[in-house]
Give the backbone structure.
Amino acid sequence: MEKLIHTIKEDQVGERLDKVLSTLNNEWSRSQVQQWMQDAAVVVNGHKVKSSYKCSAGDVVEISIPDPEELDVIPEEMDLDIFYEDSDCLVVNKPKGMVVHPAPGHSTGTLVNGLMAHCKDLSGINGVLRPGIVHRIDKDTSGLLMVAKNDLAHESLVNQLVAKTVTRKYRAIVHGVIPHDYGTIDAPLARDPKERQSMTVVDKGKHAVTHFQVLERFKDFTFVECQLETGRTHQIRVHMKYIGYPLAGDPKYGPRKTLEIGGQALHAGILGFNHPRTNEYLEFEAPLPNDFVELLVSLRNNR
């Protein structure tokens, strides 16, 4: 169990405590904080308080963060689309609709379940729920992921992500016709204080940069390639919405009237990195999935 101490600042006076605490860490939802308070894992000046407690200047808040719930992840035989594999790492093409790793209440049918049946040796750095997982893509985003099969590989791949040397290029279809051929979006991201399950551009958010290139224009849409410089949650989806060109089919960040394609039109098509043991640069490209190709054909026919 991890313990954190937070002293209420002047600009937090009068705010509800659950709201204040949920802004301290992007991974903490307000409902999660409220559950901690109900379980007496949060105390103010040594006393248990309700989540509606209004903060006073100088209040000392002690948060006892419970250890994450561990689950037994059951290996499941799946027809995984493996692009590369050796004794250190593998690259897999995740289909649209598949969750990357289990979570409490959702412990089967994930990529991790399939990976555990495919290979017995996965890095344990991220715990039992995310063995071998170095980075993620959203459930309804298809495309390439690198997976670490031992801790040495895991540390190397994570360090490459931090150093921004991993090549990650996505193909996307967005609403609107982008007039310029290239662009860079440099806008910090954080949890949306009004909707904790969403991300938004916030001045004090985490540094986030996306580069994009127009590949093809249609009547009301644009086909683009986006390259990640950083890898924040929902980064491409939020950044493209921020500049006025939200992803087609995106139920969270797109307009109400969008294309019915079962989720955002986003595919992680190109992935490149230095091999964690040999340092050789490896790059892989996954073709667009069939539904994405069919959508492009439809747009071309309706110019």
Residues 151-162 form the longest helix (12 residues). Helices lie at 17-22, 30-38, 111-118, 151-162, 235-242, 290-301. The two ends are 58 Å apart (CA to CA).
